[in-house]
């Protein structure tokens, strides 16, 4: 696998895709258009620092043990995901008519705590809505996520990595899903894909999981104070941004299959 | 707010179901819907308003299309459930619409009836062997499913042996069962795999590529050293050559040839043939 990292003028790391092993560096030019501008929301000034999604990069099939694996980068946030399944399940955990989906999230430092448990549950509920578990009853599908670096929008990055890893493992799904984070700061400016500094200073941080077929909402996790109309605005902004994420998925998977 | 509206409209336009014929050979993603050929005519430029009245209304001839791996029927359309290239095979005898399937790259095997696989015996309980085939459950193999086996003449199978057999029962609801005889009662190459040799794992796509008719890789490997080789559809390959070194070289070549182009492969073979 080939990955190169180039420090841009602003000091953000841009990591270049290598969707399959042994692919050359021709992917670089494909990723300059991954940076998107979505200027939506009240009071977003044209010279505002962040109405855009950060650079994406994704690498698949990088681990040899799991059945599927993917690494997803959004700006400086990076999550590594591995999927095992459909595999054997303990009799105490088996469900007679569908697959048992387990998600394990490990933070970068320290033991997993309550925050990780709640994020695991959110990711599991999203995956269960999308994975066709009835095709593999009495089996288990395990998604293991490892946080490599956290620079904001962690839950959205975990969702994206989990989706790419499930596709890599060949688990049957009825749609793809993606995660998008919005932050609302004190004067109502909407920022998509916030960095950790922007998340700390925001008055509300909202994360949505959207599916690829009709942009329906699969999961939402919000923190802070916001009004009903602001929620609708954030949801609309996230739905528009998810189009770019799905286009990125499509390009990444097409590149992977173009090798064979 | 005009931008998100136009963006949403562009997306929705793209999510309309496409005709399966136009997408053949392209990469399809989970969630896409594909139209079968007979439906395209109904939704084409003619439209419901201009179609002439047919005398036997309601008896539209249906073409029987088989939905292969990676596709599910959803209403009248095909829903893509795995990512990969869409393929189609015309029917041999002329009736029916052929088979559509998605060629995906996977490592985990799911048992399918009729597949020939290599399994490892993990347990012997009474009259049944439990064989690990790489799926979610171990398959069961009865001691009577070997050629020439009777209650008095039991086959010599120990825990840890390699077995080459085929599935007679393999569906999502039942435990998979395998046998080492074909429908006529003959072994036909199945049974316990002999001593020595090396078993290693590759992806399912590579096995399908190697088992395709006229695969160059196998012909070239055969010219290199005399060897015995068994391919299991569950991603396992057993290889045996005269010396351990040759066996290891063959195993490395087969594992690596998934990612090599044919030129690189020819270079490696020519280098090995010289030495």
Automatic annotation (TrEMBL), chain A:
Residues 53-172, 176-240 form the Exoribonuclease phosphorolytic domain. GO terms for biological process: defense response to virus; DNA deamination; nuclear mRNA surveillance; poly(A)-dependent snoRNA 3'-end processing; rRNA catabolic process; rRNA processing; U4 snRNA 3'-end processing. It holds the Pfam family RNase_PH_C. It comes from the Eukaryota. Keywords: Cytoplasm, DNA-binding, Exosome, Nucleus, Phosphoprotein, rRNA processing. It is found in: Cytoplasm; Nucleus, Nucleolus. The keyword Iron-sulfur does not apply. The keyword Magnesium does not apply. InterPro entries: ExoRNase_PH_dom1, ExoRNase_PH_dom2, ExoRNase_PH_dom2_sf, PNPase/RNase_PH_dom_sf, Ribosomal_Su5_D2-typ_SF, RNase_PH. GO terms for molecular function: DNA binding; RNA binding. GO terms for cellular component: cytoplasmic exosome (RNase complex); cytosol; euchromatin; nuclear exosome (RNase complex); nucleolus; nucleoplasm. PANTHER family: EXOSOME COMPLEX COMPONENT (PTHR11953), EXOSOME COMPLEX COMPONENT RRP46 (PTHR11953:SF1). Belongs to the RNase PH family. Homodimer. Component of the RNA exosome core complex (Exo-9), composed of EXOSC1, EXOSC2, EXOSC3, EXOSC4, EXOSC5, EXOSC6, EXOSC7, EXOSC8 and EXOSC9; within the complex interacts with EXOSC3, EXOSC8, and EXOSC9. The catalytically inactive RNA exosome core complex (Exo-9) associates with the catalytic subunit EXOSC10/RRP6. Exo-9 may associate with DIS3 to form the nucleolar exosome complex, or DIS3L to form the cytoplasmic exosome complex. This is Exosome complex component RRP46. It comes from Rhinopithecus roxellana.
From TrEMBL, chain B:
Keywords: Acetylation, Cytoplasm, Exosome, Isopeptide bond, Nucleus, RNA-binding, rRNA processing, Ubl conjugation. Component of the RNA exosome core complex (Exo-9), composed of EXOSC1, EXOSC2, EXOSC3, EXOSC4, EXOSC5, EXOSC6, EXOSC7, EXOSC8 and EXOSC9; within the complex interacts with EXOSC5 and EXOSC9. The catalytically inactive RNA exosome core complex (Exo-9) associates with the catalytic subunit EXOSC10/RRP6. Exo-9 may associate with DIS3 to form the nucleolar exosome complex, or DIS3L to form the cytoplasmic exosome complex. Exo-9 is formed by a hexameric base ring consisting of the heterodimers EXOSC4-EXOSC9, EXOSC5-EXOSC8 and EXOSC6-EXOSC7, and a cap ring consisting of EXOSC1, EXOSC2 and EXOSC3. It is found in: Cytoplasm; Nucleus, Nucleolus. InterPro entries: Exosome_RNA_bind1/RRP40/RRP4, KH_dom_type_1, KH_dom_type_1_sf, NA-bd_OB-fold, RRP40_KH-I, RRP40_N, Rrp40_S1. Residues 26-105 form the Exosome complex component RRP40 N-terminal domain. Residues 197-244 form the K Homology domain. GO terms for cellular component: cytoplasmic exosome (RNase complex); cytosol; euchromatin; nuclear exosome (RNase complex); nucleolus; nucleoplasm. GO terms for molecular function: RNA binding. PANTHER family: EXOSOME COMPLEX COMPONENT RRP40 (PTHR21321:SF1), PNAS-3 RELATED (PTHR21321). This is Exosome complex component RRP40.
């Amino acid at each position: 696998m080939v990955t190169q990292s180039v420090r841009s003028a602003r000091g953000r790391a841009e990591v270049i895709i290598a969707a399959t092993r042994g692919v050359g560096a021709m992917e670089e030019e494909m990723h300059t258009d991954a940076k998107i501008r979505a200027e939506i929301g009240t009071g977003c000034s044209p010279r505002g620092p962040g109405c855009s999604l950060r650079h994406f990069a994704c690498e698949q099939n990088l681990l040899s043990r799991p059945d599927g694996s993917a690494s997803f980068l959004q700006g400086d946030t990076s999550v590594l995901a591995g999927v095992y399944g459909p595999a054997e399940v303990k009799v105490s955990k088996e469900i007679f008519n569908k697959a048992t989906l387990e998600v394990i999230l490990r933070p970068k430092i320290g033991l997993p705590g309550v925050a990780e448990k709640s994020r695991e549950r959110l990711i599991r509920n999203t995956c269960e809505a999308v994975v066709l578990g009835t095709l593999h009853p009495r089996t288990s599908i395990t998604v293991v996520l490892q946080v490599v670096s956290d620079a904001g929008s962690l839950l959205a990055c975990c969702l994206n990595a989990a989706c790419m890893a499930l596709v890599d493992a060949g688990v049957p799904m009825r749609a793809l899903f993606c995660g998008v984070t919005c932050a609302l700061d004190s004067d109502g400016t909407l920022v998509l894909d916030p960095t950790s500094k922007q998340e700390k200073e925001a008055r509300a941080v909202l994360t949505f999981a959207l599916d690829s077929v009709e942009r329906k909402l699969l999961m939402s996790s919000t923190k802070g104070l916001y009004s009903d109309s602001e929620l609708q605005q954030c949801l609309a902004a996230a739905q528009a941004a998810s189009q770019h994420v799905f286009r990125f998925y499509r390009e990444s998977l097409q590149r992977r299959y173009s090798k064979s | 707010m005009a931008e998100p509206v136009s963006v949403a409209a562009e997306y929705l336009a793209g999510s309309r179901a496409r005709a399966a014929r136009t997408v053949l050979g392209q990469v399809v993603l989970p969630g896409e819907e594909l139209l079968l050929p007979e439906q395209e005519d109904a939704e084409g430029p003619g439209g419901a308003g201009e179609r002439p009245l047919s005398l036997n209304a309601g008896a539209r001839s249906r073409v029987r299309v088989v939905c292969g791996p990676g596709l599910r029927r959803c209403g009248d359309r095909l829903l893509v459930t795995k990512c990969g290239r869409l393929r189609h095979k015309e029917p041999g005898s002329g009736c029916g619409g052929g088979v559509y399937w998605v060629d995906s790259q996977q490592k985990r095997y799911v048992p399918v009836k009729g597949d020939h696989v290599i399994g490892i015996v993990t347990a012997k309980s009474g009259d049944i062997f439990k064989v690990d085939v790489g799926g979610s459950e171990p398959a069961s193999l009865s001691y009577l499913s070997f050629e020439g086996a009777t209650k008095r003449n039991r086959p010599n199978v120990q825990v840890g042996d390699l077995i080459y057999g085929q599935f007679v029962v393999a569906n999502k609801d039942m435990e998979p069962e395998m046998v080492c005889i074909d429908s006529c009662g003959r072994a036909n190459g199945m049974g316990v795999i002999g001593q020595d040799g090396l078993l290693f794992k590759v992806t399912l796509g590579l096995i399908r590529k190697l088992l395709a008719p006229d695969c160059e890789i196998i012909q070239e490997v055969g010219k290199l050293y005399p060897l015995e080789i068994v391919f299991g559809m569950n991603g396992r390959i057993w290889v045996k050559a005269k010396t351990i070194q040759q066996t290891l070289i063959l195993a490395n070549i087969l594992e690596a040839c998934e990612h090599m182009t044919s030129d690189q492969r020819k270079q490696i073979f020519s280098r090995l043939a010289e030495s």
